[in-house]
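The aim of this short unit is practical: by the end, you should be able to scan a pair of folded records and say something sensible about each. We start with the first protein, listed as its amino acid sequence and then its structure tokens.
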Amino acid sequence: PEQAARMKKLQEQEKRQKVEFRKRMEQEVSQFIQATGEPRRRFQPMNKIERSILHDVAEVAGLTSFSFGDDEDSRYVMVFKKEFAPSDEELEAYRRGEEWDPARAEERRRLRELAAQQEEAELERGPAPPGPPNDYKDKYRHLIGSEAAKAAARTMEANKAYGC
């Protein structure tokens, strides 16, 4: 009976903490929505239950939310206003643990486009002409040398003793 009472008290305390946490998150999300110059907000790392509460609060408020971070201790939630919903590239940057930099992303996009154009140009040129990709003499030069054939050719002289 004593243990059951203690358990019930702990459960009530946990429930109260969750309700308080939810109220705090609702206030923070409300402040975030009213902050005009803030397209996204990153929250401190929190445990799984707290993250799920925050995701729920964000969803009710009409926001987009994602969790980032590798291990349980460092996972955090980022909340985005709908009009500033993140692109796939932006999400990938956060997943890699990088800060999102639109200028750098634009540069990467341009480089990818350039690479695609070069690849397209190569395809338009058509396949390489048939034949070996290199000269076998070059491949075996270290074995036969470049002068061996010429030296061998000079030694072949007609032998006058046989009457040729």
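Turning to the second protein, read its sequence before its tokens, just as you did above.
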Amino acid sequence: LLAPTEMSSPSLKTGAYILIGVGALTMLMGFLGCLGAVNEIRCLLGLYFTCLMLILITQVAAGLVIYFQKETLKDELSRIVGNLIEKYGPLNDDERNIEEAWDYVQTQIACCGWTGAKDWEKNKYLINQSMTMYPCSCSNSSKDSQSDTGFCKLDIPVNGTATYADWPVHEQGCMDGVENWLKDNLGVILGVCTGVAVIELLGMILSISLCKNIHSEDYTKVPKS
């Protein structure tokens, strides 16, 4: 069976920890912002501004890392998906959730394997079945539309054996499918990222304005000697 450690990598773990940290910081930021604005506490508004600035810097840094380290990340994903495909099987209960997630990716993107259906020729279960079965989530046949997980059997195996070329599956690999999806939706992705950044900048400007107003009110309340 595929050990959990084989499905992880330092880069992906670091990315997951960063996302968890940003999520926790966002919750803290929202609480501090509301409390500071309602009670007019400059210290909390300052912390709110700092949290927003840190989140914005983290997002920009993450974008730069993804852009400049995309080949490294692609290699990491290739290794992880390769291990998953090789060990994928009906008896692999320990990694069932990960396998179902990969089946979902292949179904939604209409792809097969990471670079292509040939990747599945390394699967131990399919090798034992003389390649007379194929992953249902790869199928381009309407008769397999109700089966999005596990393996489907070829109707007429050739001489009792087959190859991936005999399978009724999508020719596109998921790596190309993901890249094409990103290219097709690049405008939407950039628009969402820009919108989030603008909202964060507005929040930072608002917190500074509130701090100045509070400071001005405190100054006017000081009795003149």
